[in-house]
Design brief:
Layout: H1 3-9, E1 14-19, H2 28-35, E2 45-48, E3 54-59, E4 65-70, H3 76-87, E5 90-96, H4 102-114, E6 119-123, H5 144-155, E7 172-177, H6 188-201, E8 205-210, H7 214-226, E9 233-237, H8 245-253, H9 259-266, H10 271-292, E10 296-300, H11 306-315
Parallel strand pairs: 1-2, 1-10, 2-5, 5-6, 6-7, 7-8, 8-9, 9-10
Antiparallel strand pairs: 3-4
Helix pairs in contact: 4-5, 5-6, 9-10, 10-11
The chain binds flavin-adenine dinucleotide.
Flavin-adenine dinucleotide (FAD) binds at residues 49-50, 52, 94, 96, 123-126, 143-145, 176, 182, 184-185, 190-191, 194, 207, 209, 236.
Length: 316
């Protein structure tokens, strides 16, 4: 089922969350154990992130360092199929430009289509950590909008080999939005121009980067609407669970954490207290967003169920 169909058919705010594939070598049972406690709240879909390869340095016998390209969290496509099979819930794989040629993307989308997956979240992907800036593959896409165009083409039966008599796919397409601006964009207006482009090319819905101040989301939604972006905008939320995240999250995701939350976390005496403050903050955010009438509340679970479960218990 398409995410947009769930939204159309529901009068209430829906529940969904995102998980990461396990680190290479870990079992899928661990992941199932993390998902299981959240199934009670009837998520309509579960997103599965995609992780590109990274460079790691291994010491050779002669003492020299050797650089290897390794994907630390493979398995996105397999996990989506396993989740759908095990939990009977829709899985939404993330697909990224980074590390893929157009041909590889086409083949991956064919796999997803054969597996009965109806939704994809289309992203550019992050830069390889040691590279700093995003470098597309020689025959790959530089922007999410280009990858989106490829999916839209396939939805029309138009594959890379235009002479091919191909059957059309039918993916519902999500894209990312940034209430606090994507860090590379010179300003929010320019960022929104490209978000509008994604809608114009055929995106069906938006999922936002995490934010800790609902006002940022409300302002973002009204600016989007002013620009003619009419598709659903699903807020993404992450509960703070450790004190270290006060500095890590802004560094990785280029977002602000409100002073009130920072002070509350800093005044905690134990890690358990920090977690409770983070969960309570996310509950308040969730309740206010439901009142605002958001279509879905989407949680970044980091494949840990405990915090999201406590939030869902209070909210759904
Ligand atoms: P784009 O839409 O391509 O935008 C990137 C930048 O280029 C922006 O500054 C934009 O303003 C600008 N831009 C966009 N289009 C154009 C254009 N046509 N011409 C010029 N400039 C343009 N990363 C992963 O690696 N794996 C994941 O699974 C993953 N999941 C995510 C899920 C969500 C909900 C979000 C919000 C992010 C996720 N990310 C993931 C991170 C994401 O890949 C990064 O934030 C990335 O830097 C940008 O991705 P994008 O799709 O927003 O890029």
């Amino acid at each position: 089922t398409k995410v947009t169909q769930y939204i159309r058919e529901s009068k209430e705010t829906l529940f969904s969350f995102e998980i990461l594939p396990p680190l290479k070598g870990e079992s899928i049972q661990q992941l199932f154990k993390a998902i299981e406690p959240l199934m009670e709240f009837k998520p309509k879909f579960i997103d599965v992130t995609y992780h590109r390869e990274e460079y790691v340095y291994k010491k050779r016998e002669n003492g020299l360092l050797e650089r290897q390209r390794i994907r630390k969290r493979p398995g996105t496509v397999g996990i989506c199929a396993a989740i759908m099979n095990h939990f009977k819930v829709d899985a939404v794989p993330h697909i990224i430009c980074g590390g893929f040629s157009k041909e590889e993307t086409e083949n991956a989308l064919i796999d997803l289509h054969f597996l009965g997956i109806d939704n994809v979240l289309v992203l550019r992907g992050d830069a390889i950590k040691s590279e700093g800036t995003f470098i597309p593959e020689p025959d790959g896409h530089a922007y999410a909008s280009e990858l989106l165009q490829q999916v839209v083409n396939m939805n029309k039966g138009k594959y890379l080999d235009e002479g091919l008599q191909a059957s059309a796919t039918d993916f519902c397409i999500g894209v990312a939005g940034y209430p606090e601006k994507h860090f590379e964009a010179p300003n929010l207006q320019t960022d929104l121009k490209y978000l509008k482009l994604k809608q114009d090319l055929g995106a069906d819905y938006i999922v936002t980067q995490m934010f800790f101040d609902n006002q940022k989301y409300f302002d973002f939604v009204s600016k989007c609407r002013e620009m003619g972006i009419t598709i659903p905008i699903i807020p993404g939320l992450k509960p703070i669970t450790t004190q270290k995240q006060l500095t890590i999250l802004p560094a990785i995701f280029h977002i602000d954490i409100p002073d009130e939350l920072v002070k509350a976390v800093e005044s905690c005496k134990t890690p358990e207290q920090v977690k409770q403050v983070g969960i309570e903050w996310a509950i308040q955010q969730s309740k206010e967003l439901i009142q605002f009438g958001v279509p879905v509340l989407h949680y970044y679970s980091m494949s840990k169920s405990d915090a999201v479960r406590q939030i869902a218990e209070a909210v759904f």
